[in-house]
Amino acid sequence: MVSRIVNLFETKAKHILIGYTVAGYPSLKGSMDVIKAMVNGGVDMLEIGIPFSDPIADGPTIQRASHTALNNGMTPTLALELCENVRKEFDIPLSIMTYSNIPYRIGYDKFVKRAYEAGVDGLIIPDLDLEEAPKLKELLSKNDMNIILLVSPNTSKERIKVISNIATGFIYLVSVYGTTGARKTFEDYTRDAIVKVKRYSKLPLAVGFGISNTEHVRFMLEAGADAVIVGSAFIDAIDKGNVEDFTKELKRACYS
Amino acid sequence: MKYPKNGRFGVFGGAFVPETLVPLLEELEEAYKKFKDDDGFKEELRYYLREYAGRPTPLYYAQNLSKRFGCKIYLKREDLLHGGAHKINNTLAQALLAKKMKKKRIIAETGAGQHGVATAMASAALGLECEIYMGLKDTERQKLNVFRMKLLGANVHEVSSGSQTLKDAINEALRDWISNVKDTYYLIGSAVGPHPYPLMVREFQSVIGKEIKKEVELDSNDALIACVGGGSNAIGTFYPFIDSNVKMYGVEAGGEGIESNKHSASLSAGSLGILHGMLTYLLQDEHGQIMDTHSISAGLDYPGVGPEHAYLKEIGRVKYVNVNDQEAVEAFLLLAKYEGILPALESAHALAYATKIAKKHKKIVVTLSGRGDKDVGIIEEYMMKHGIKDS
Lengths: 256, 391
Hints:
The complex is a heterodimer of chains A (256) and B (391).
Chain A: H1 4-12, E1 16-22, H2 30-41, E2 45-49, H3 60-71, H4 76-89, E3 94-97, H5 101-106, H6 108-117, E4 122-124, H7 133-142, E5 146-151, H8 157-166, E6 171-174, H9 188-200, E7 205-208, H10 214-223, E8 227-230, H11 232-240, H12 243-254
Parallel strand pairs in A: 1-2, 1-8, 2-3, 3-4, 4-5, 5-6, 6-7, 7-8
Helix pairs in contact in A: 2-12, 10-12
Chain B: E1 8-9, E2 12-13, H1 21-36, H2 39-53, E3 59-61, H3 63-69, E4 72-77, H4 87-100, E5 105-110, H5 114-126, E6 129-135, H6 136-141, H7 143-151, E7 155-159, H8 166-179, E8 184-186, H9 197-205, H10 207-215, E9 223-227, H11 232-238, E10 247-255, H12 266-269, E11 271-275, E12 278-282, H13 307-314, E13 319-324, H14 325-339, H15 345-357, E14 363-368, H16 376-385
Parallel strand pairs in B: 4-14, 5-6, 5-8, 6-7, 9-10, 9-14, 10-13
Antiparallel strand pairs in B: 1-2, 3-4, 11-12
């Protein structure tokens, strides 16, 4: 069977908007409203973050959201329940993003099983040791779920090839040298990285980190990305209360 | 265990890091492999260790304590090093490596400030820029060390995220490194973090054990004892004796007691998990969130432990035990009174355990990883709070 994620990239490439939010932010109940607003606004895929106490790939915005979510009592079990509720309402591709320790602590097999039962389509782990990836891939593939691996602008072409041979669904390119969080502008090296990854990987490409406005969305798609991932800017939109309008604005940029 | 395969000690260790750091760790490992056996590098390091840091350090026979406990107790005097702790062994070596790699900017984390001070010293001596990350709570607890670092030319960043302690300082240093990939060298302070750090730090701290080997003969009746936070002075003490039959004890911080949940004993009471790039024993909750830790000694106050210690525990080569705050304070007072030495509270944990098992051994070597001047305020407060009069 083809996963919802693979299907999405086969049908909509070059115009895909992926929205990230932290489970449990702004509140345990509030997450569902955020997700509804994102879906109503037009995101093509959801990435739900299970908060971790020590998120080293995240900048201040997502750190703060994760911290708040944990204080709100968010747990991996509750986050998977949230996914299950999302799945009941929407047939949208859905991935989990979390740090290595969360699935490791629960047990890879148990975690993947629960995620599958909750209707999750893929897993993104920003601090995964590539040594662990084949084990996870086997468990995920059995359930037609994707293992989405990250590359960075400084990843060598040899390693891009290795990674894209393991990854399924799409490759997640980290746009910049840095953590997640809104940025003013992007430099040429981001464009070069998009070109490089497209050249050495046969998988579709999504770019994330720092993308926070329509101009950024156009920059990434024009450079050759198939999808953009927006995270911190959605956390800011939650705080401002304009998630749906913000999503619509980004979505329009995906087609302009 | 010579060179860890795929960066693992058994199953422990690894490199659980964002992809941006992978090329940087590879570059580091390459440079480390190239220079560790390079005669020029080794000679330069020996020079700095001897002329700047004050190596070799004496192995002092503590005769008054020995008489009292009926066992020959020796103290490996790392407290006599420049900066007052074993940390300088590692910072000089890594700063020298950074220089060979043509990195201009050193970043480091610090808990109590000892590694921060040792990094600032090595950076100043070798003409490198130095940025130190330190949890906000720690900067408040250790004001003197913050000022020392500033005097030594370091820029100190207060970290206000998370629990505002050492673990958050490491998070922030890693984030800095992810953001500054070209010119920055992350000088980690303990035998922790992603491969190749645990290996490198072990090698650079092994000078402790190598010297002990020359200073005293030890056999199966004898023991080595060192405190374990991240575990760098302990692995440096133990590693040269791994293939011998000498007994070894790593002493963790039992804080207010294991049952109180206020401790830092990840090997004694933790579970397997992944933090700061490594798979090791951690203090974490059932969901995998890292817990707040406690110890009277800030240098042991860390929720993880170096992966090689996790391995040595698993194969049973080293016995890991813990000593609580009160026992550590008592050992501190004991050494001050009977030998005229103020040990760091970290090292006092090792000494406390030595007094407990003295009867079972002929000779015991305790690594006195640092001096205790930094802790006198904490000791005074503890004595007042618990109604302890002058010892």
